[in-house]
What we know:
alpha/beta, binds phosphoenolpyruvate, elongated, nine-stranded mixed sheet, Enzyme I, Chain A, domain 2, Beta-Lactamase, Glucose Oxidase, domain 1, 27 helices, 4 domains
Amino acid sequence: MAGPANVGGSRILLRKLREIMETGGAAQERLDRLVHMVASTMVADVCSIYLTRGAVHELFATEGLKSEAVHRTRLKHGEGLVGLVAETAQPLNIADAPHHERFSYRPETGEDPYNAFLGVPIVRSERTFGVLVVQNRASRVYGDDEVEALQTIAMVLAEMVASGAFGDLSGLAEVEARASRPEFLQGRAFSDGLAIGTVVLHEPHAPLGRVIADDPVREEERLNAALLQVRKTLEEMLEGDPGRISGVSREVLEMFLMLANDPSWETKLKHGVRAGLSADAAVERVRGEHRAKFNNTRDPYLRERLHDLEDLDNRLLRALAGVDGAPAQELPADAVLVARELGPAELLDYGAERLKGLALEEGGATAHAAIVARALGIPMVGLLPGLLSRVEAGDAIVVDGERGEVRLRPEDAVTAAYRQRLELRTARAAEFARLKDTPAVTRDGARVALLLNAGLALDAHHLDDAGAEGIGLFRTEFQFMVSETLPRLESQTLLYRDVLETAGERPVTFRTLDLGGDKVLPYVTAEREENPALGWRAVRIGLDRPALLRYQLRALISAAAGRRLRVMFPLVTMVSEFDAARALVDRELEWARVRNHQLPAHVEIGVMVEAPALAFSIPDLKGKADFISIGTNDLMQYFFAADRGNARVSDRYDILSPPALRLLKRVRENADAASIQVSICGEAAGKPLEALAFVALGYRRLSMPASGIGPVKRLLLSADASAAGAVLQPMLSSGVSSIRGELTSIAAKQGWAL
Ligand code: PEP
Ligand code: MG
């Protein structure tokens, strides 16, 4: 075209486009004029619009191809170059279309002589409505400015389709402009709970009706104001105390600020505005470029930077929407956040009070956001492919964190059913809250200590809410997993001290770093291992590279100055490993002593029993370990040779089976004989029936997620431990594969509150 290479050219194009759209007339006529105008302005031999209608991409208008082909040429999903553009949602710019492997020849179009092909997706809100194409006889690649101009037109076109501007076009009813039907998506549950609410998009979109600007000067002012606001917010965050609350490190904020001040970013944005786009649309277009580059980049460093840039684009869009850079100020009261992916720090920025639920399309790093979601008590479902292309801000949504399901725009009857479930949950929660100060004592007088599994300072408030008697397992690696860089000594100390202060008189058992296996750090590139669960993880790393472990012990000792300190080591397999780990504690205590630091008042060192080999070595721990805690998650995965994270095998065995229960009975007896305090801290301890079985085997300390404490206590208060033991005992030597059925029926018969 005469001038798509410059801003003036783009503006002329947008103005002409606007004239066509505003002069009215039948929709088909306007589309015809549009392709004619684009072809002539861009000096293209062909310009065509394909819209996606059900399972096909249908030619809706063309200049240059045979007019008989309109509404007749239909390409199946994925078929031809048009299908490729729609599938990838990326521009395709090639000089020799007929020789492309995906080229699909349609004689009715008469497209034989065209070599150059440029197709761009017609997308809005992650949804592809179709493809806009220009073609030329000459074999050439289109320039960047031409691609940009065509993308801008596609953006306007998408907006018009979405807003119903072509309402009278036959066949358009089947072009799904805005998802409106109820949809059901099955994903994976990452945090328990149920939320019924309204969709808020983490990655916002330019509002409908705001793609072409009336007044470029005003748009530039809006853009400048929003840029200023984003930069100011970042500066304020830097001046504050990054890291303390959200785990966003100073380095990351500095990088953000640097990118936000990068003139090329600003120039690109202004380029769009001066070309006639609204400020919002200009940002959205730049974000599209960043995302496309991100998808095509393998280099982890570059991907990280592109992700940061996209994050900045999102902040800017929110600022333009009048919501300031701290993302959550104007959320609806029942906000459910929908995002492609969310870092733990971003989730913390929204805050617990503002979010009812969380649904993520991807799942790469979701485990880390999940840790925070659980600590905040926000229901979360992840691994929901296609989610973003099916929702709009403001849609009704249900997030079912029990079953890992999401429902979009549910029918009234479905919402009503979920409301009932929610009420039931609320009623149960109220019942558990009434029990929180009641000690867990079975009807026959067995007193059981119920403790909390925690990992973030945020979790500590569950101590009071749930009525836990202490923290039986504090997973220190969580701080490392939700931070963007390795936490320094001071921030480790700060966290441990916070937790000890919140716990007050109640005991806290800190577990040293349990990294490796499924627990990966975003900022450490680990060597790939064939079998990570059996690999270099947990205390094995700590003993081979003692610097990190010693640092952590130093932080723990300093945080517990003048108080009781309980520390345990994960995945110890041999007693000699425990000896070596314990020696490191002694060394660090000595280190603090010679420097006249105040020491903990009392130090207890324990070990997790997670490896079968250690489960058979309890007598050898006599006089060495002050306590042991059984991690049934790992112990059972190794005992039954079934990966705990693999749903196909993790449910194949039952912990309530004779071999597992015999093992647990033996460990408890050996621990008693060696006078070592023993507890169970795997997830199973938080399930009522399992907990009852453990109590029947003689366990009196159980540590579990906060959500387990109420239900477990309710059952124990109503049950009889020796009666349960009498059922269980003879079955331990039977050949059944599970005693679950027997135990359930005795509970039902006796009226125990299961
Ligand atoms: C366990 O393995 O049972 C345990 C409590 O540790 P984690 O789940 O953190 O591996
Ligand atoms: Mg474990």
